[in-house]
Write a structure and sequence with these properties.
The chain is an all-alpha fold. Helix content is about 80%, strand content about 0%.
């Protein structure tokens, strides 16, 4: 009986901590497997985590003596397919409803402030964007114009996710304040 089999038996007997050893031993292999099939690093990490959770939940179904890595990859394959299907569905929904949502948001803005001139607001937003610091402007552009995830921005900028979310939060507040000030001084 090899070490993996012994560890699996420990986990099945109730030793939850032993499972971390299995994760440690097979994590790199699953990351490589998923990474080859999924272009997004954040999604790869999520799929690998879901794979280990599902494997833990179904560990009693594992056939003793068979290759544990192969068994994990088969679970990972289904997690990848499920995640890609979910992303595809979300993209279709976003495309389908984004125009309707935009129209509703514009209509609401027009209802609350009927004299709002959208072109003036866009011009004010551009001026306010130029007033942001270079790093903040890059992060806001990546998030809202290039539609990148916070994780992607984090990886590309070399900063952690916390830094990116803080910059986005502060930038949105600065943009709101700037547009408000320009509206008061310049009028709408």
């Amino acid at each position: 009986m090899n070490d993996t089999q012994k560890t699996i038996e420990q986990v099945l007997k109730g030793d939850r901590d032993a499972y971390s050893q299995l994760v440690y031993e097979h994590q790199d292999m699953l990351v490589a497997y998923a990474g080859f099939r999924i272009p997004d690093r954040a999604m790869v990490d999520e799929v690998v985590q879901m794979t280990f959770i599902r494997a833990y939940e179904q560990l009693e179904k594992y056939v003793s003596g068979s290759d544990f890595g192969v068994w994990l990859r088969s679970i990972c394959k289904y997690m990848i397919l499920r995640e890609l299907k979910r992303c595809s569905r979300n993209l279709k929904n976003r495309k389908k409803y984004s125009e309707k949502i935009s129209q509703r948001l514009i209509a609401r803005a027009m209802e609350t402030e009927p004299e709002v001139d959208n072109l003036n607001i866009i011009e004010k937003l551009k001026k306010c964007m130029n007033a942001l610091r270079n790093n903040a402007r890059k992060v806001v552009t990546a998030k809202y114009i290039e539609e990148k995830s916070v994780n992607q921005i984090s990886e590309e900028s070399g900063h952690n996710v916390s830094w990116v979310t803080t910059i986005l939060y502060r930038s949105r507040a600065l943009l709101r304040k700037c547009i408000g000030q320009r509206t008061q001084t310049e009028g709408i």
